[in-house]
Amino acid sequence: MSNKIQVSLPEEELDWIQLRQDLGPVAEVETTKEKLQRKIKENPLVPLGCLATTAALTAGLYNFRTGNRKMSQLMMRSRIAAQGFTVMALVVGVVMTYTDKK
Hints:
By secondary structure, this protein is mostly helical. The protein has helices at 11-23, 32-42, 45-66, 69-101. The chain has a domain at 32-98. The radius of gyration is 25 Å and the shape is elongated.
């Protein structure tokens, strides 16, 4: 007597298996670290904008806590400018990527 268990797979899962077999060897999947490095290389202004935003926010909060209101206001305005720079860098990067693909 055999104690084999028969498993039935849903039809959708079998379709995916067949699709993978039909496609053959697919390009390697990049890791999160590799993807981050590629994105930074493609558009280096975005990480710079993020760092500038973080630095301005940190300096603004520090000055706010120590009571230096004038410098705190200046840093908060700098943060807004850095955020604007980051958004513009994102938009330019997307436009450049889109035009490269055409």
